[in-house]
Predict the 3D structure of the following.
Amino acid sequence: MALALILTSISPEVGGVLVRGEKGTAKSTIVRALAAVLPPVDDHEARLVELPIGATEDRVLGSIDLESALAEGRAEYQPGLLVKAHRGILYVDEVNLLHDHLVDVLLDAAAMGRVTVERDGVSVERDARFVLVGTMNPEEGELRPQLLDRFGLTVEVAAPRDPALRAEVVRRRMAHDADPESFAAAYADAEDALRARIAEARKRVGDVRLSDRALLRIAEVCAAFEVDGLRADIVMARTASAHAAWQGRDDVVLEDVEVAARLALPHRRRRNPFDSPGLDDDLLQDALGEDDLEPDPEPEPDPDPDGPGPGSDSSDSSEEPGRSSDAHPPRCKPPDATGEPDAEAPGAGTTTAAAAPYRTRLLTVRGTGTGTAGRRSRARTETGRRVGAERPTGSGGALHLVETIRAAVPHQHGRGRVAGRLLLRPEDLRVAVREGRESNLVLFCVDASGSMAARKRMEQVKTAVLSLLLDAYQRRDKVGLVTFRGDRADLALPPTSSVDVAAARLEDLPAGGRTPLAEGLLEAAKVLELERIRDPRRRPLLVVVTDGRATAGADAVARSQSVAVWLAGTGVASVVVDCESGAMRMGLARVLADHLDAEHVPVGEVSADALVAAARGRAA
């Protein structure tokens, strides 16, 4: 952790550090200690600015100076926390609990080195180059992957397990509490030496040479870990240069690249939610190779003109070993999709395991709710982003001072204003309208009929549902599970906040029998009605996972569609995950989605990565 903080202090362009760890591991203590060892700026000590998780956007970015506006009638800019942190440290404790839009704001400022404010009649741009440090306890919730990627480096911290080391930590803490001044004096020389070394590294880092061979090795490491985008390559290059400067070197060597990889890639590598944090050491060593990174050699003279050149047939005509000319491997032809009743019988009672879960697309409830704070659907909240102002309706709300003044100013002449005073009336009052995110009840209604097993689709369905369950957990939702097969539907899991229980019930879910789709929808409606009575503010999201081929009872398809129309009339937001596959498709799941007034999502597009790939394909 200390090394990551030092490297981003040497080169703030690295993009800051995210410190993840359990409670009581001195995350906040070491960040605050960093300010004491940073070299002074213009003969002033480096400033440590803390951004509280309850801060508002105008406090972070800055806004109009109300004192000047009221006394002199001028709109002047009052700097926010980002500008105050210029050339210092901006520290965010429990950054995972900060509102997402504020995290976006501070990460944009950290990347650009400037803050642009266009609000409250103020239009300014200010420098805001700072060392960004965030700490978080993963037990209290994760950061969105898009925000996680914006932090340059990340480190995992844990309490030491060595009893001798734990005893030494306690001994030093007690010594500090007993006599802080003497304790600080004992380490003053070490702090001075560290401060001087950081200052020297800052001067050196701009002259460190990053060879083409080192850049290629960085790219090979990033490719080996399948990171998305190029931000990882850029961060690794800057981190390797900073580490070389820290070690007093003029050239980046293999050790610098390895250190950069261990700090810049753990939160960017492609992994499943249940994978352990960190990097695969064997894979890293294979990607790094054994040869060190020597400086680029001097350019050699042109090769023999009679020798083979870049355009020779030997290099262009052959394919890459082990690859065919097709872009995708051949697939087995799917079985005939027309014999539904016969297909259900072989799968009766079979249980299929789910594959590794993946990151899913975001499913939301339409409109704006007023429910419990969360991370899924839009909602009116008391602490979210300020999106406007309105007249008070008697239900409370924080006063929007700027809009109140703005509403009162045009009427001052008619009210006989006294110089230096602003006359307000009740009709001038405005309260802030804030928008954030709420948590929802996500109820899964899963088709467990024989067609799912006969088509070898249950693994794909379980994987998709498990991935959506994990997404619901990260967004602080309640989840429930209704299954239907044979001639009945069952509530396999009453709504709960425990994703582990839901995943266990899903894993043991057998598949077989006919498809009582109407009964499944009716059971889901019953559960939603009970939950509406228990928690009326929590808006539900119904996720129906099926191929739409109802087969249980007379007129099964027509009955299921009739129930869907009735359910849509209750106003429940729904999503239909279409599991149909094969060359011959009936499209009944899409028809069901139309009757439900629901979003239609093919099961192959539940993955966020699949959506990106599909969008790229359409744009090509």
Q: What stands out?
A: Residues 304-348, 357-362, 610-620 have pLDDT under 50 and may be disordered. The longest strand covers residues 373-390.
